[in-house]
Amino acid sequence: GLCNACMWRQNTKSSRLEAIKIQILSKLRLETAPNISKDAIRQLLPKAPPLRELIDQYDVQRDVSSDGSLEDDDYHATTETIITMPTE
Q1: Polar residues bias located where (predicted)?
Q2: Any residues with CB less than 8 A from the CB of 16 and at least 6 apart, and which?
């Protein structure tokens, strides 16, 4: 099990992430996050080879980086998905 301080840190981190998600959805005027699969995103993206190579090289969904040098960073945000919305 986790010590009390570790549990408190984990709960605080989870609460903070949830508050950030709610704030982002509010600013986008959405009630819930769009349900878009990674496969759908890949089909919608342009098929330009350089873009495909960058997406594959820097894919944030991977469990291991290509060179194995990246470590978990609890203090900085990472982008997992980018969704663009049409403007009026």
Answers
A1: 78-88
A2: none
Residue type, 42: R
- Are the C-beta atoms of residues 38 and 82 closer than 8 Å to each other? no
Token output for 6: 């570790």
Q: Determine the Cα–Cα distance for residues 47 and 49; give it in Å rounded to an integer.
A: 6
pLDDT category, 60, cuts 50, 70, 90?
A: low
Q: What is the CA radius of gyration of the chain?
A: 17
Q: What residue type is 77 in one-letter code?
A: A
Spell out the domain ranges in the chain.
4-57
Angstrom distance (rounded) from CA 11 to CA 21: 15
Q: What is the DSSP string of 22-70?
A: HHHHHHTT-SS-----HHHHHHHS---HHHHHHHHHT-TT-SS-SSS--
Residue 15 has pLDDT above 90, yes or no: yes
